Amino acid sequence: MLQHNPFLWIVNNNDFQYLRHLSAGARYTDQTLNRWIEQLSEEERGLFVDSLYTILKSTDLSTFDEFKTGWQTTFPAVAQAAAKMDKETRHFLFPTLRALASLGIKNFPNIFLDHDGNS
After folding, report:
1. pLDDT of residue 85
2. Taking a C-beta distance cutoff of 8 angstroms, is the pair 78, 54 a contact?
């Protein structure tokens, strides 16, 4: 996620400094999200993003760090916003999030592999 913060980018000789390898956590996140999103149709992806935006907007938070720091109060607000969504969206959203969580658990052992897939 930090890749989206331009104040953390390093530039040498008019080009970005590139990492040779992603961290284990970054590889795990990348692999999990990519495999999960590939399972969704384009329409489902759009519905998920729109729903997630609506839910997160209801929290009035500006950053993910704010969400993490105040999760005890923001999580109930997120759950309440999700519960207020129409029935069809809820019936799509919750199984979709369960599929992501399930894939995350399934992929978790991969976090212990190095960048070449060795443990």
Report:
1. 92
2. no
Between β-strands 15-16 and 11-12, what pairing exists: parallel, antiparallel or unpaired? antiparallel
For residues 59 and 74, give the distance between their C-alpha atoms in angstroms, rounded to a whole number.
6
Q: Which residues of 47-83 are buried (b: 16+ CB within 10 A; e: fewer)?
A: bbeebeeebbeebebeeeeebeeeeeebeebbeebbe
Q: What is the pLDDT of residue 89?
A: 93
| 84 in Cβ contact with 1 (< 8 Å) | no
- The whole-number mean pLDDT for each consecutive block of 10 residues of the chain, a chain of 119 residues, reads 69 86 84 93 95 87 80 85 91 92 88 65
Q: What pTM value is reported for the model?
A: 0.69
Q: Which two tokens stand for residue 38?
A: 């590939």
Q: Which two tokens stand for residue 78?
A: 């997120």
State the Cα angle at 46 between 43 and 47, rounded to 5°. Answer: 85
